[in-house]
Amino acid sequence: MLKKLLAALLFAPVVAFASAASPVQYQQGVHYEVVAEKATETPEVLEFFSFYCGHCKAFEPFAQALNKNLPTGISLTKHHVDFLRVAPPELQQSLAKAYVVAKNSGQGDRISNAIFDYLHNQRGSFTTEQDIRSLLVANDIPAMLVDSGMVNTAVMDEVAAMKQSQDHYSAAKILQGVPTLLVNGKYQVKFSGLSQENFQQDLNALVAYLLAKKD
Fold first, then answer.
1. Global pTM value
2. DSSP string for 127-167
3. What's the total number of domains in the chain?
4. CATH code of residue 189
5. What are phi and psi of 33, to 5 degrees?
6. Pairing with 98, which of 10, 130, 138, 156 sits 20 to 30 Å away (CA)?
7. What are the residue boundaries of the Thioredoxin domain, all occurrences included (predicted)?
8. What is the DSSP letter of 13?
9. 179: preceding bond cis by omega (within 30 degrees)
10. Residue 72, domain extent
11. Are the beta carbons of 70 and 45 closer than 8 angstroms?
């Protein structure tokens, strides 16, 4: 299953790295790229993704596991993009709202899995925001919570912040596809540089290394 997920992400073949007992020396240009001059003031891990993206679906289990292994006080922030051509931007923004509603109720990972499954495994589709609402309700998010959340000012502000972040990194030529994983706003993870045999372990270690990196 692991190899199938990695193949879906189109990771290039790489040589297996040293075992966990031998620390890996992560290198710019191989394991990560420097995409900004300055890091963010506070440590952060940011993923740009889309529910319509098959590669994002394949990466989702790794992203969820990464989030559980981040240092105390740091969590993976997920920004749903709206630039894929498979659906109108407004509908993609509705999916972003649905994700935020689920996340704020403590169901982000579970609903993400359900949406990915519906679109990619069941070959379902969304035509309206009501279709998205129906999927959340069918997956045990209370209708009242969905209805109030989808028009909630705080939710709308969070989705607007996603859009602003997307536009910023797109204009800087950093965000050119999904999934994209950024650490401290300065380092972009190169998935192709990570071990296929120990991808999760390597990903966790690389992100920890970049979070602590001072230069």
1. 0.90
2. SSHHHHHHHHHHTT--HHHHHHHTT-HHHHHHHHHHHHHHH
3. 1
4. 3.40.30.10
5. -120, 145
6. 10
7. 6-167
8. P
9. yes
10. 2-212
11. yes
